[in-house]
Amino acid sequence: MTDRAATSSTQAVRDAVSRGAGRFVDELVEWLRIPSISGDPDNAEDVRLSAQWLAQNLQDTGFPTVEVWETPGLPAVFAQWPSDDPDAPTVVVYGHHDVQPVTPLESWEHPPFEPTVVSTPHGDRLHARGAADDKGQVLFHTLGVRAHLEATGRTSPAVHLKLIVEGEEESGSPHFAALLQERRDRLACDVVVVSDTGMWSRDTPTTCTGMRGLTDGQLNLRGPRGDIHSGSFGGAVRNPLTELSRVLAALHREDGSVAIDGFYDGVLPLTDTERALFGKLPYDEAIWLANAKSSTAYGEAGFSTLERVWARPTAEVNGLWGGYLGAGHKTIVPAEAHAKVSFRLVAGQDPLDIQAKVRDWLARVVPQGIDWDVEFYGPGVRPCLTPLDHPALEAVTRALSAAFGTEVLYTREGGSGPEADLQDVLEAPVVFLGVSLPDDGWHAPNEKVEIPLLLKGAEAAAHLWSDLARSLHP
Amino acid sequence: MTDRAATSSTQAVRDAVSRGAGRFVDELVEWLRIPSISGDPDNAEDVRLSAQWLAQNLQDTGFPTVEVWETPGLPAVFAQWPSDDPDAPTVVVYGHHDVQPVTPLESWEHPPFEPTVVSTPHGDRLHARGAADDKGQVLFHTLGVRAHLEATGRTSPAVHLKLIVEGEEESGSPHFAALLQERRDRLACDVVVVSDTGMWSRDTPTTCTGMRGLTDGQLNLRGPRGDIHSGSFGGAVRNPLTELSRVLAALHREDGSVAIDGFYDGVLPLTDTERALFGKLPYDEAIWLANAKSSTAYGEAGFSTLERVWARPTAEVNGLWGGYLGAGHKTIVPAEAHAKVSFRLVAGQDPLDIQAKVRDWLARVVPQGIDWDVEFYGPGVRPCLTPLDHPALEAVTRALSAAFGTEVLYTREGGSGPEADLQDVLEAPVVFLGVSLPDDGWHAPNEKVEIPLLLKGAEAAAHLWSDLARSLHP
Asked: Is B230 close to A316, i.e. CB distance below 8 A?
C-alpha cells in the first residue's frame, strides 16, 4: 500500500469509527448498567445477563456465529465471523465481561452501575465499574469490525475473526484453562489479540509484548518436635526461625540477583533494541515510587526499575510466620517456621523447572537438624513474550500508529495472567491491543475510561484486521 | 574442725534429720493439699491460705519473727531467726510457696492436690503439685534449722537466718523486685541461698553457680506504606520480609557466634577449672537431645552443649510474622515485618548495654528504604554468677558434700530468674541449695519429689549455717 493509500484508509477508518461512536457509547452504557461482579455469588445472575447482552450485541453487529459457553462457574461468550477469503489468517480476540466488586461504595463519586459521562479538556470520560476493565475494551471491537467493513467496503472481515470473552477473569479464571482445552478446536487461530491491558499514557501509545510467569508455594521448616524453652536450650539447637531467615536471606545475592542454582538458565536477555525502546518511555521514577507506596527503588544490579519489573525474574517472600506472635514475650525456640514465597518468571523459564530447582537448592542450603518441605500451588503460570520482530506484533504496532498518528512504544506486564493459557493451549502468539490509562482506576473506586481512547482502540482494530490479512499470510 | 569432728558432726546432723523426717513429711503433705496456684485468680485465696500455713509452720519451727508481706498481688512470707552471736553473717533463704497450674488434669496418675507417697527402690517418693517446685525445698529448711540446733546444741542458728518465700514466682514474680526494694533493709544480708533449683542426678550432687540474664523485645521493619502487588512492583523495591530475614540471618556468624558489634565485650570467659568440672558431669547428649525434642545439637563453635546453654550468651528469634499468613496465596510485597528476639546474657554483660548495642547494630545493618524500630520489654534481667572460689559457694559445696558423702560438681542455669533481683537489690552473692531431680516434672503433670533427697537438703542446710558462720566471718 502506498503512503497516500494508507492515509486515505486511515481517514476512512476514522470517519467510520466517528459515525459509529454514538451508537457504541449508548450500547456500552447499557452494558455497564449490568453489575456483572463474578466474585460475588449474589451477582451470578447479573454475570449471566451480561453474557446474554453481549451475545445479542455481537449478533446485532453481524457475527454469524454467537454462542454462550457454560462452564462449571459463570459463562463465557464466543463469537465467530469467517472471512470470505478462506486462506485468511485466524485471529482470536480475548477479553472478559465480568467486573470487580465495588466496595467501598461510599468512595465512588458516581454510582458504579449508573454510567456517567463527564466532559474534560481531553474529551468525554465515562465513569462506571467495568468501563475500562474490561467492557469498554471488549465492546470497541464491535465498533472496530463495523468500521473495518465500512472503510474497506468488505462484507466480511479480512481475517477469520473469533472472540472469546470470559466471565470469571476477576475471580482468577478458575475454569478458563479447562474451557480453552475443551474448545481448542473451535478456538484454533494464528494469533491471539488480548484487549485487557492499557497503554503508557494518553500521549504515548504502547503495546505490551509480554507478561511474567509465576510459581509460588509454601515453605515449611521444622526443628524441635515442640516449642522448647530458650533459656534451657537456646544456643545449643538450631532455631527454625533463624534457619528460615537464613534460607530467605540466601535467596538473593549481594547484587540483588536470585541465588538459586540455575535460576537464570535459559532466561532470554533483553536486547539492546528493547532496552533502548523501554528507555524512550517518558518514565518518572517519582511517580512509579508513589504507585509502589515506596521511598526507594531497589533491585537487581545493572537493570532499570522498568526492566526489573518487566523483564527480570524475581524471588519474593509474600508471608512469613512462626513461633510466638502474641502480645508481650514468650522466650521459646519454636518447633516450626513457615514462609510463602513466589517467583516471577520471564521468557526462557518454565514454572515446573523452577520448582525443581527450588527444591534442589533447598536440599542444599537447609542444614542438618532441620526438616523442610515445600508445597507449590499448582503448576504455575508460564511467562509469555512476543518478540519485537514478530509479524503480528509489527502489525499491532502499525495499527496503533495509524490510529494515534504517532510512534508506538513497548511495555510489558510484571504480573501474570490467563494470557499464558491462551498462548500455551492455542499454541499461538499473543499480542496486546489495549487503550486504558494507568489512572483508569482498575479494581478501585471511580473506575473510568476515556471515550476518545476507546475510539482509537476501535480504529486500531479496524486497521489490524486488514494488516494481519496482508502480513501474516503475505 | 578436725576430720573426726567433721564426721561426728555429719552423723549428728544426719541423726537429727532422721528423727525429724516423719514430722517433716506429714507437714509437707498438709501444705501440698493447698492448691496455691498463683496463675489462676480462682486460687488466690488458696495462695493466701498457703502463706498463712507457712507462717504458722515457721513460728512452730521456732522463728521468733514471722510476717506475711502483702504485695499488690499475692503475699510473700518473711521469717527471721537471729543468731545469738551478733557478729554472725546474715543469710537470706529464697523460695516460693505458689505452684504451677495442673492442666491437663487427666494426665496425672495421682490427684495433684492429694499428696501420695509411693515406695521405690530409691526410697519414698512424694507425688503432688509443688512437691519439688518449690514447697518441698522450702520446707526442708525447717527440718534443716531444727537439725542444725539439735546437732550443735545451739538455741539459735549460727547465722542470722532470714527466709523470704514469695507467692507469685510461677506467675513471673511481677511484684517481687518492688517488694525487695521496699523491704531491702529488712532483707539486708551477706549471702542469698536459693532453694528453687535441682541437681544433676541422684548420684551426682551439684550446685548451680549462675544463671543467664535476658533482654528481649520486638523488632519492626516497614517498607511500602501498604501491601503492593508483587507482579507490578516485585523485584524493584525492598521487601521487608526479605530484609527482616537478612537482619535475622546476620545475627549470627558462620561459627554460630552472635555478630552484633561488641556483643561479647566484657563476657567473663569460662576458666579451665570450670570447663574441667563441667566435663566431669556424666552428660549424655542423647538424653539432652530428647529433653530438647531435637535430633541434632548445634551452636557456637568451640563450646560443648552444656557450655553453650550455661555459659555463653545467645541471640534467639522467638517469633516472626509479616505479609500474608492465610490459606492459599496472595502475591504481595508486604508493608511490614516483625520479629520477637531475645538475648540470653552471661556474667560481664548488662541488659541495657546490650539493648544499646542491638540498636546500634540495627542502624548499621538495616538498609535504606526500610524503616525500623525495636521495643524492648523492660530493662531485662541481669545475669548472675558466683565464682567457684567464693567463700559462700565453697561453703555450699562442703555442706552438700557432707550431706551426700561424695564429690560435689557444678552446674549453671541457662534460664533467667528473680535470683538476679536478689543479687542486685540485696547486693549479695547468690548460691543455690536445691535437691530436685531433672525428672521431677516441674510445671508438668505427675510432679514428684524424692523424700531421701529432701532429707539430704535439710542435712546440707544444717551444715551450711555452721560452715558459713566460720567461713564468711572467719
From this structure: yes
B302 contacts chain A (CB < 8 A): no
Say whether residue B317 is in contact with chain A using an 8 A CB cutoff. yes
Given the DSSP bridges, would you call strands B332-333 and A116-120 parallel, antiparallel or unpaired?
Answer: unpaired
> Beta strand pairing status for A160-166 and A90-96?
parallel
Using a CB-CB distance cutoff of 8 angstroms, which residues of chain B are in contact with residue A296? 237-238, 368-369
Q: pLDDT at residue B123 above 90?
A: yes
- Residue B89: helix, strand or coil by DSSP? coil
For A91: left if phi > 0, alpha if psi spans -120 to 50, otherwise beta; the answer is beta
Give the phi and the psi of residue B448 in degrees, each rounded to 5: -150, 170
Which of chain B's residues have a Cβ under 8 Å away from the Cβ of A368?
Answer: 296
CB atoms < 10 A from the CB of B41, how many? 8
Provide DSSP, A86-114.
TTS-EEEEEEE--B----SGGG-SS-TTS
Nearest neighbour of A333 by CB, restricted to B295, B316, B413: B316
A104, pLDDT greater than 90 = no
At A7 the pLDDT is 74
Mean pLDDT across B156-165: 98
Q: Is A305 on the interface with B (CB under 8 A)?
A: yes
A212/B contact by beta carbon, under 8 A: yes
- φ/ψ (deg, to 5) at A261: -55, 125
CATH of the domain spanning A3-211+383-471, picked from 3.40.630.10, 1.10.3210.10, 3.40.50.1820, 1.20.120.1460: 3.40.630.10
- Grid-cell match 489490524, residue found: A464
C-alpha cell at B191: 549471702
Which grid coordinates belong to A55? 451475545
A223 reaches B (C-beta below 8 A): yes
> Quick check: B104 pLDDT over 90?
no
What is the DSSP code (8-state) at residue A171?
G
Residue whose cell numbers read 522466650: A331
Name the band, by pLDDT with cuts 50, 70 and 90, for residue B90.
Answer: very high
Topology (CATH) of B213-267+313-376: Alpha-Beta Plaits (3.30.70)
Residues of chain B in contact with residue A299, where contact means CB-CB under 8 angstroms, are 235-237
The answer to whether B244 contacts chain A (CB < 8 Å) is yes
- Is there a contact between B324 and A318 if contact means CB atoms under 8 Å apart? yes
Asked whether the beta carbons of residue B229 and residue A299 sit closer than 8 angstroms, the reply is: no
Residue B1 has pLDDT above 60, yes or no: no
To the nearest whole angstrom, how far is the Cα of B449 from the nearest Cα of chain A? 21
Rounded to two decimals, the pTM is 0.89
With cut-offs at 50, 70 and 90, classify the pLDDT of residue A326.
confident
Q: Which of residues 42-101 of B touch A (CB under 8 A)?
A: none
Residue of A nearest to B249 (CA): A246
CA neighbor of B98 nearest in space, from B57, B58, B59, B134? B134
Task: Name the strand (E) or helix (H) holding A431.
Answer: strand A430-432
Q: How far is A250 from chain B (nearest CA, A)?
A: 8
Domain borders along chain B are 3-211+383-471, 213-267+313-376
Distance CA B195, CA B318 (A): 29
DSSP 3-state percent helix, strand, coil across chain B (nearest 5): 35, 25, 40
Q: Complex ipTM, two decimals?
A: 0.89
**Is B377–A328 a contact, with Cβ atoms under 8 angstroms apart?**
yes
10 Å Cβ neighbour count for B421?
A: 21
Strand order in the sheet with A448-450: A116-120, A123-127, A448-450
Q: Shortest CA distance to A195 belongs to which of A453, A414, A20, A466? A: A453
List the grid coordinates of B84. 545469738
Per the CB < 8 Å rule, is B325 touching A309? no
